[in-house]
Amino acid sequence: MSSPIVRFAPSPTGKLHVGNVRTALINWLFAKGQGGTFILRIDDTDTERSTQAYEDGLKADLTWLGLVWDDTFNQSKRFGMYDAAADKLRDMGLLYACYETADELDRKRKIALSRGRPPVYDRAALNLTDEDKAKYEAEGRKPHWRFKLSGERVEWNDLVRGPQSIDTASVSDPVLIREDGSYLYTLPSVVDDIDAKITHVVRGEDHVTNSGAQIEIFKALGGTAPDMAHTPLLVDAEGGAFSKRLGSLSMDTLEARGIFPMAILSHLAKLGTSDNIEARDSLDVLASEFAFSKIGRAPAKFDERDLLALNATLVHAMPFEAVKAQLEAISPEAANERFWLAVRENCQTVNDAKDFADIAYGQIEPIVDAEDQDFIKQASDLLPEGEINSETWKNWTGALKEASGRKGRGLFMPLRKALTGQEHGPDMGVILPLIGREAVVRRLSKA
User: Fold this and answer.
1) Which segments constitute the Glutamyl/glutaminyl-tRNA synthetase class Ib catalytic domain (predicted)?
2) C-alpha to C-alpha distance for 249 and 22, rounded to whole angstroms
3) How do residues 355-383 score in pLDDT, each as one tens digit?
4) What pairs with residue 227 in β-bridges?
């Protein structure tokens, strides 16, 4: 097999979220695993909704993730090519003008359904005479343009779904050009795929029904249809629709929350496959493990808890130098290796270290239950002399256990709450030296 050439084709009308990043990632892993080419195509034919800010944002997000492209181009710079392709299809009699309004088309669909027929366009426009068209034009109507399907069965072997076929007689001739002259997705995409020599189109399964028409357009324009792979769409952890939550899972939001790129990439690469969802160290490893045969047919369930668990795995193994800058942004005092090694096992993200930085170096509000007041006073009296070190907690609680008769949770929890203001956190034997004697004494006295 020759080296694959694939493309990821986002529209710069919003932010990149986990759904379209998954499509980009699968394309990238497949191409790079085979020594191929990954093209970023900016689908900005919708000039009113597309913005430079969104384009810059999606490029920044892909770069942050490490999904670097080998080539890129904008569809808005290629309208001349699309016009030429449309003219060619007109000359072949495969692109024809239609003058029905949206209301008229809706009425036709309802009538067909009421008679038990599929709501397929009836091709009435093919019977229009030049006089009919002139009359519509005089009324101020502008035509939309449909591609005339062959009415035959189109077949392909999908790399995910296996053998597929669509009877093009059972679907409407697709509209390629709107009445305002703007192009829908289909024609520019085919023109670009031919020009860029795309070998594989990898996308979500919601595009399966478009494939028959697109394959016919490829052939009409003298191109060869690429191989296709249609992947199951994402659903939420309960199997429900995912689209409403995508905004909170945009790349800039996840980055701000402290989620690492490799957590996102590891999660999305393994989601819906036969592989276990485990963190990987690099994109190269993910590419070496990728295969379309591993992708299942069931919807891929995205559970944010799995993403956080993967991120925690990476955080727990992260050396101090790798997070030093982030810790400095949290607190200058927290930017030390002793602190990071003490708290990282309790962090799902580096940002979580802020809570522990407040405990170690900031001001906290001690929590002491009424029944523990005397115990905390006793603990204050028994605090070992001298600088607090790694042995202090063990020696201190040992003396307290003997003096008070307390043990287990009843011994340790009141001290943790009084000294940290929390019921959970890093091992007290490790965190206590970070707090330091002065702060320990002050917090016990406030309690």
Assistant:
1) 6-275
2) 12
3) 999 999 998 889 999 999 999 999 999 99
4) 200
CATH architecture of 80-177: Alpha-Beta Complex (3.90)
Q: What top-level class would CATH report for the domain 243-316?
A: mainly alpha
pTM of the model: 0.89
Among 32, 52, 38, 65, smallest CA distance to 268 is for 65
Nearest to 207 by CA among 237, 185, 240: 185
Alpha-carbon gap, residue 38 to 4, rounded angstroms: 9
What is the radius of gyration, based on Cα positions, of the chain? Answer: 31
d(CA 269, CA 365): 43
pLDDT digits (tens, 9 = 90+) for 38-96: 999 999 999 889 999 999 999 999 999 999 999 999 999 999 999 999 999 999 999 99
The helix (H) or strand (E) run that includes residue 65 is helix 52-65
Residue type, 239: G
Q: How far apart are the first and last CA of the chain?
A: 72
In 31-171, DSSP assigns E strands to 37-42, 71-74, 95-98, 144-147, 153-158, 162-167
Dig out the tokens for 211 from the structure: 């494939």
The CATH code for residues 370-446 is: 1.10.10.350
Count the Cβ atoms, other than its own, within 10 Å of residue 401. 15
Q: Cα–chain-centroid distance for residue 325?
A: 26
Alpha carbons 357 and 347: distance in angstroms, whole number: 12
| β-pairing verdict for 37-42 and 5-8 | parallel
In one letter, which amino acid is 120? V
Angle of helix 52-65 relative to helix 261-270, nearest 10 degrees?
80
Angstrom distance (rounded) from CA 263 to CA 308: 8
Q: How many CA atoms within 13 Å lie on the side-chain side of 345?
A: 9
CATH architecture classification, 5-74+189-233 = 3-Layer(aba) Sandwich (3.40)
Residue boundaries of the structural domains of the chain = 5-74+189-233, 80-177, 243-316, 320-361, 370-446
Confirm or deny that 244 is annotated as ligand binding: yes
Both tokens assigned to 106 = 């809706």
Cβ atoms of residues 125 and 99 within 8 Å = yes
